[in-house]
Amino acid sequence: MAYIDNSSDVPALAGGARVEDYLALLKPRVMSLVVFTALVGMLVAPGGINPFVGLVAIVCIAIGAGASGALNMWYDADIDAVMSRTQNRPIPAGRMTAGEALAFGLILSVFSVTLLGLATNWVAGGFLAFTIFFYAVVYTMWLKRSTPQNIVIGGAAGAFPPMVGWAAVTGTLSWESFALFLIIFLWTPPHFWALALYKQGDYGAAGIPMMPNVAGEKSTKWQIFGYSIVLAASSVLPNLLGFSGWIYGTVAVLTGLSFIWLSLRLLRAPDSISMRRTARTLFTFSLSYLFVLFLALLTDNIALRLGVI
């Protein structure tokens, strides 16, 4: 998130950090997708939830996602300082101490988990706690710097929110909620590996073993293509499991084929310049892919409940 110096307009908090620095720790862009997928999981779950309780649950999931981001930035401050896209984050830029970020992340974690458990049920609260732990400890502290499979395994953390939303309504987990998890889980590797293909220098300088830096560009492109095919196939699971209709099915097929086509273009890129340009195009498309897919699922579900289709 780009930093604009508005020091005269934004009040400083304890320790010298400003409000916008604490907001940056929450990774608002990432949080927005997390919140949306969790909301869809909640709204398509069978049964219903009191609107106020549902709002509290979504706020808790958002705060939990922000807590994960803060803990991630606390631990990764050293490598953020050497990567061009992260150098201006609050800690490496010197606007906040690591201790402030750690305290902020821990407080938000405890608050979000406790409130979600009390407001809905402890299945949802416990699963949110596990999600924060998985992202902050399993992914950030262990996988990210130790294996090129960091994104593959660590991607589970970003795929849990719709299951948390589902559990907030039903108090259980199910195959339907797992299908939503699987779609996000399989989307994560091609999404981040496309970014890594045109940001290899950054990851190499930071010593992060992303797939292009370890296995090479050719292997990464083949893996992106393979994951795209499996992702497209998994996107029709809501139809196969019976909790979506033709609106979602049509969007899932069209967006899935588009993902495969772009990954095929990337695979066939004739040179490095073309490869980087196509990788950026695929990454940009993948940013909207999940939003479009989950929006279609929500639209389809509302239409089915209203008897429109």
TrEMBL record:
<feature type="transmembrane region" description="Helical">
    <location>
        <begin position="279"/>
        <end position="298"/>
    </location>
</feature>
<keyword id="KW-0350">Heme biosynthesis</keyword>
<protein>
    <recommendedName>
        <fullName>Protoheme IX farnesyltransferase</fullName>
        <ecNumber>2.5.1.141</ecNumber>
    </recommendedName>
</protein>
<dbReference type="GO" id="GO:0008495">
    <property type="term" value="F:protoheme IX farnesyltransferase activity"/>
</dbReference>
<feature type="transmembrane region" description="Helical">
    <location>
        <begin position="246"/>
        <end position="267"/>
    </location>
</feature>
<keyword id="KW-1003">Cell membrane</keyword>
<feature type="transmembrane region" description="Helical">
    <location>
        <begin position="122"/>
        <end position="143"/>
    </location>
</feature>
<feature type="transmembrane region" description="Helical">
    <location>
        <begin position="150"/>
        <end position="169"/>
    </location>
</feature>
<feature type="transmembrane region" description="Helical">
    <location>
        <begin position="55"/>
        <end position="75"/>
    </location>
</feature>
<dbReference type="InterPro" id="IPR006369">
    <property type="entry name" value="Protohaem_IX_farnesylTrfase"/>
</dbReference>
<dbReference type="GO" id="GO:0048034">
    <property type="term" value="P:heme O biosynthetic process"/>
</dbReference>
<comment type="pathway">
    <text>Porphyrin-containing compound metabolism; heme O biosynthesis; heme O from protoheme: step 1/1.</text>
</comment>
<comment type="function">
    <text>Converts heme B (protoheme IX) to heme O by substitution of the vinyl group on carbon 2 of heme B porphyrin ring with a hydroxyethyl farnesyl side group.</text>
</comment>
<comment type="similarity">
    <text>Belongs to the UbiA prenyltransferase family. Protoheme IX farnesyltransferase subfamily.</text>
</comment>
<dbReference type="GO" id="GO:0005886">
    <property type="term" value="C:plasma membrane"/>
</dbReference>
<dbReference type="InterPro" id="IPR030470">
    <property type="entry name" value="UbiA_prenylTrfase_CS"/>
</dbReference>
<feature type="transmembrane region" description="Helical">
    <location>
        <begin position="30"/>
        <end position="49"/>
    </location>
</feature>
<keyword id="KW-0472">Membrane</keyword>
<keyword id="KW-0812">Transmembrane</keyword>
<keyword id="KW-0808">Transferase</keyword>
<feature type="transmembrane region" description="Helical">
    <location>
        <begin position="175"/>
        <end position="198"/>
    </location>
</feature>
<feature type="transmembrane region" description="Helical">
    <location>
        <begin position="219"/>
        <end position="240"/>
    </location>
</feature>
<dbReference type="InterPro" id="IPR044878">
    <property type="entry name" value="UbiA_sf"/>
</dbReference>
<keyword id="KW-1133">Transmembrane helix</keyword>
<dbReference type="Pfam" id="PF01040">
    <property type="entry name" value="UbiA"/>
</dbReference>
<dbReference type="InterPro" id="IPR000537">
    <property type="entry name" value="UbiA_prenyltransferase"/>
</dbReference>
<feature type="transmembrane region" description="Helical">
    <location>
        <begin position="96"/>
        <end position="116"/>
    </location>
</feature>
